[in-house]
User: What shape does this take?
Amino acid sequence: MPIRSASDVLRQYIQPLKPKEKLSRSDWAERHFQVTKGSSTGRWKTRPYQREILDAWDDPRVWRTSIMKSSRVGATTLLNIDEAYSIHWEPCDTCTVQPTTGDAEKYSRDTFNALVENIDVLTELFSVCKHRDGTNSILEKYINGASLKFIGANSPNGFRRVTYRIVRADETSAYKAGGAGKEGDQIELLLNRTIDYHDRLFIDCSTPTIEGFDRIESAFALGDQRHRFLPCPHCGHFQRLSAAAFTPGAKKDTPGGFWWEPGKPSSVVYICEHCDKPIQHSQKFEMDEAGEWRPMAPPNIDPNGREHRSYHIWAGISYQANASWANIVAEYEKNSESPQGLQVFINTWLGLPYREDASTRLTAESLYARRDTYTSGTLPDGILMVCIGVDMQDDRAEIFVWGFGPGDSETQAGAEPERWLIEHAVIFERYDTKAVYAQIDSFVLGDYPLSDGKILKPSATAIDSGDGDHAPYVYEYANSRMKHNVIATKGMPQPGKPPINNGKRTEYDMKGRPKKTGAVVYQVGTDGIKTRLMAQLKHGHESGAGAIHFPNDTTEEFFAQLVSERRHYSTVGGQPKVTWVRRQGVRAEALDGTVYADAAFHHAKKKYNQKTMWQQIRATIEAQGKPAPEKSPVAFNLLEGQKPY
Ligand SMILES: [Zn+2]
Assistant: This one.
């Protein structure tokens, strides 16, 4: 057994009210659980399609269930049932993970508190507990010998130390790639947190996002891929409800699909794939009563002989009044005209990942085919400014040197620049060695000769300071190179942020102590930059403002990383929300480094009058008499604490 602290201690003092009787989750829910919101408020009734999933969580043969789902199928309520059951009936150590710590707090305050208020057995337990100890906070509950934590997937600390018998990872597709910092992927970390338990249970559950870029899609594919099969009320033939009719241009009169008269959602019926007869929405419930989950892939068994099951649930089999077939058709008709609307519909009503239109999809192959004729390390004509982005990893630094010019919009303030990748270099040294900073110096202090022999020096360098361990080293280096316009940056994915802000003093020295003269850290509006860059790459300008050039020796790997993320649309509380999702298992340094270089460019621009910026720069370059003598980079004595400047 793993070592656990608070809950173990509490178990000694609080006699768990654990009843002897064996009760399955679905039976427990029907006896004790109250639905707290929506039209079906009241005593819980397990729907036929939900029963097998709840039963799987009782089943010792199952260690993981991955649920790829639409909205309106009660998936979150199933998680709530497990939370309540794991406190009241089978007390154990569990956690529920939400995309961010803010989401986790909100979930605890709103959803979990409502459970405690509405479910009598929980109300009782918590009222007793309140008087006995002070161990219950928003994010941690210790009760009845059980513990329940709420964790944000963006919190590196949330994944350390503690182990859990049950992990519920909710809305996994919204977990930011790399969100747990250098610790690794959140799902892998969470899986490790259960490993000590022979009876561990891992539940991951999400609405999917973009095909090929989605966590729950990958998890579903790993499991045995169960779909709900329903018998036709006319001929008894079992079939999956096909959502193929909800595809623009789909033929709607083929057997085995939905049919409706365009513009009349209420006319919708399902045509049996076997007998061709129409099935009415009202018959859906009796079909589900007799329905069954069928795996479409071979079982995935872990070394302990336990199964990973995966389920796809979508609104077509929902019992909620607002998810009738007519509602689904109406939503489809409303949203099918725009790619964004269609994507939201496919994710949130069909519970499927959205497949991008192949003709507009940005691929590594198409960019690779568009490489320019110049070679890395040389500066094609048109470049007037050099800026550098540095992506710092534990074991290496990746340097992205980009050249910028006005293209055909020299006097247009705010126009996109034309840009050229000059060099991508990888320094295989750790972030905490002086060797890595000495080599970064050779880029930051280096000369970049133009074809006429004139020299450009980098106008700005943005180094990502990341979280935790890297930050003090990056701050210290940026501080020592301030006069070369080297800045420490931090990515802020929230929408609406400017490419780079005006910076804020940090408070840490090498030992993590507050410091009056701390480095300045600049926030980078990563999502906005990605949106602009991707639009320009998609547009594929050959030259001029907005054109992006790559040297003839750029690798396919570079482009794979550059297109490793996709814009994803969703609605949160009725408001549209755009986020970026990363392709599973693909590195993204080229994208990140290119984003930092763009941030460096925006930082460098700030000291100029925007209207005359390019003329000013051009005049400065032309004023160069002859190439300046090459300056040899001075080693950076970070570890000795000596500053060369
Ligand atoms: Zn039939």
User: Anything to note?
Assistant: DSSP finds 18 helices and 28 strands in the chain. Residues 101-118 form the longest helix (18 residues). Confidence is low (pLDDT under 50) at residues 9-13, 632-645. The radius of gyration is 29 Å.
